[in-house]
Amino acid sequence: MHEIVAAKYAEALLEEAKITGNLKECVEDLDNFCKLLKENSQFYEFLVHPEIKDDEKINIINSSLKGKTPDELIRTIILLITHDRIEDIFLVNEEFKYKYYEYIGVKFALVKTAIKLNDEEIEALRSKLKRKYNCDIEIENIVDESLIGGVYLKVSDETIDETVKGRLERIKKQLLKKDEVII
């Protein structure tokens, strides 16, 4: 459900940014804003805190971003705040990148691994994906130690989860299936 909502916000931002000509800047600024939220947990907690009034949050956003970030991106962040969806900003960022790269004729591949891929591994993956999709590929490698090992790959609507965490979750589901006897 969160992905569907995030996709709608991303689509709206894409359309506005195309009209204003700020598309590339919005992609970069939203990505940087999300990185800031990940690095600064206090700021993130401030934005998602239910007891802090939206007006306070909006004032901070406006005073920090006005004149430095495209207005359509600021409006999107404010909409996420006022609709109690700011925690979805990371999904909006991901969806926005997919839509942006699709718009410019490039596929965006999100690769999550327990350890950072080196340049050779990224280029090997890019080469394989180029052959598969017959187009340029932009790869973002996100390190998520909770995956334990393996690779999670999302390209457009296709997702491949070959992580240890993903496999363990699938095994758990099988073991917990109703009316199934395990010996």
UniProtKB/TrEMBL annotation:
Functional description taken from the UniProt entry: This protein is part of the stalk that links CF(0) to CF(1). It either transmits conformational changes from CF(0) to CF(1) or is implicated in proton conduction.
GO cellular component: plasma membrane; proton-transporting ATP synthase complex
Pfam families in the record: OSCP
Subcellular location as annotated: Cell membrane; Membrane
Top-rank lineage group of the source organism: Bacteria
SUPFAM superfamilies per the UniProt record, alphabetical: N-terminal domain of the delta subunit of the F1F0-ATP synthase
Stored InterPro entries: ATP_synth_OSCP/delta_N_sf (IPR026015), ATPase_OSCP/d_CS (IPR020781), ATPase_OSCP/dsu (IPR000711)
Key word RNA-binding present: no
Family membership: Belongs to the ATPase delta chain family.
Membrane topology term: Peripheral membrane protein
Keyword 4Fe-4S attached: no
HAMAP family given in the database record: ATP_synth_delta_bact
UniProt protein name: ATP synthase subunit delta
Record NCBIfam families: ATP_synt_delta
Organism: Caloramator proteoclasticus DSM 10124
An example molecular function term from Gene Ontology annotations: proton-transporting ATP synthase activity, rotational mechanism
Keyword terms, alphabetized: ATP synthesis, Cell membrane, CF(1), Hydrogen ion transport, Ion transport, Membrane, Transport
